[in-house]
Amino acid sequence: MSKNALQPPRGTRDFYPEDFRRREWLFDHFRRIAHRFAFEEVDAPMVEHAELFTRKAGEEIVDQLYHFEIHDRHLALRPEMTPSVARMVIARAGSLRMPARWFTISQNWRYERMTRGRKREHFQWNMDIWGEPEVTAEAELVGSIFALLDALGLARGDVKVRVNSRALLEESLRQGVLADRPEIFEPLCIVIDKIAKVGPDTVIGQLVDPAGGVGLDEASAREVVGMLSARSLDEAAGYVSPDSPALADLRRFFDLLDAYGVRDQVVFDASVVRGLAYYTGIVFEAFDSGATLRSICGGGRYDGLSEKLGGKPLPAVGFGFGDVVIAEFLADKELWPELPRPLDDMVFALGEAERPAAVAIASRLRSQDRRVELVLGSPKLKRAMTDANRAGAARIWLVGPDEVQRGVAKVRDLASGEEHEEPLDA
Predict the structure, then answer these.
(1) Is residue 326 part of a domain?
(2) Which of 103, 307, 384, 413 could staple 348 via S-S, CB 3.0–4.6 A?
(3) pLDDT digits (tens, 9 = 90+) for 381-419
(4) Count of structural domains within the chain
C-alpha cells in the first residue's frame, strides 16, 4: 500500500477524539441557536443527482463538483445544502406550514483551490426560511448569526456583516446594460462577485470578453464596476429611482436590525453580490473585522430557486456558515475552550475472579447514564490509577478479593483523594 493511501485525501480531515470534541462543541452551538430561533433540523442524502447542482454554467461550484456515473446515473457529492433543502420543500410544498424554518448541519464537498480557511471538505450550518417574502426573514437570520457569534465568545466588532441587494443592482442596470439583454444579469453577477479576489481590471476584462457570456463594451463594464464602489445606501440610491422597491427593502431591513441590536455591526457594501446564480434580493456576508480570513458565512434571498428546480414559485432566504473559517478565527482569538474527555467513572477489578463484580458495577452505573470505562486488561493497580487520572475520570471503583468477600467496592475521588465504600448490590 502506498504512503498516500494512508493519508486522508488532500483537503479533507481526520477527526481524532480531541478534534471531534471541538467539532461537537461547535455543532452544539449551531443547534442551540437554531432551536432558540424555533428552527427545525432536517437532513438529506450526501449524494444527489448531479443535475440538481448544475443549474448555471459559469458558476465555480459547477466546476468543483465531485461527481461520478454509476449504473447509468450521474451523481454528485453535495457541494452545498440549499438545493437539497429546496428539493425537499418542493416535495411537500402543499402541506408545509409556512413560513418553514429549517436548519441543517451538513458535510459538503468542493474540489477547489485551498487557502487558509478553505478546504475541499467542510461542514456547514445552514438556516433557511421558506415562504416569507418580507425582509423580516433576512433580519431574523442576521440576528441569529450574531446570536451565535455572541455564544461563541466573540466580542461585538470582531465580525462585521456586509450587505447588498441583487435586486437593487438589477434595478440600477435596467435602463442601461440590461435594457436589451436582461438574460446576462446572472452571469454578470458571477463575474463581478470575483472583484475582491482578482481586482477591478480583471473583472472588466471578463465582462467585455465576447466568449465570457456577458459581452459588454468597455464603457458599460466600467460603469458596472463603478457602481460596486458604493458604501452607503444614500450613495447607492443615486443609481435608482426614489421609489425603488429594492431600496425600500434595504432601508426597512436596516431599521429592523436596530431592534435586534446589531445595526452598528452591519454595513452596506455594493461589491457583495455572492457567487451563486440563484440569489435574487438582499445578499450578505460576514467577515472578521481584521480581514485576515475569507468570509465566515454568507447568504441571501433566492426567491427563484424553487421554480428553477421545477417547483412552484416560493420565496426563500438562507445562509451557510462553515466550520473551517470559524475554527481558524476562534483559534486566532484563543477562544476554544478546554474540552477534556467526558468520563465519570473507571471500574477496575484487581483480578479475574473479581471481574464479574466489576462488570455488574459498571453496568449499574451505565444504567444511570454515567460515562463509565471498565478496565479490560490486567494492568497493575498503579497503572490503572495513572490511566484514570490521565483519562479525566472523576472517580475510580476498585474491586479486589477482600472487597468482594465483604460485599463492597472501594471508591476513590480522584480530585480529593478521599475514599469510601459502596455496597456491591447498591
Answers:
(1) yes
(2) 384
(3) 999 999 999 999 999 999 999 999 999 999 999 999 999
(4) 2
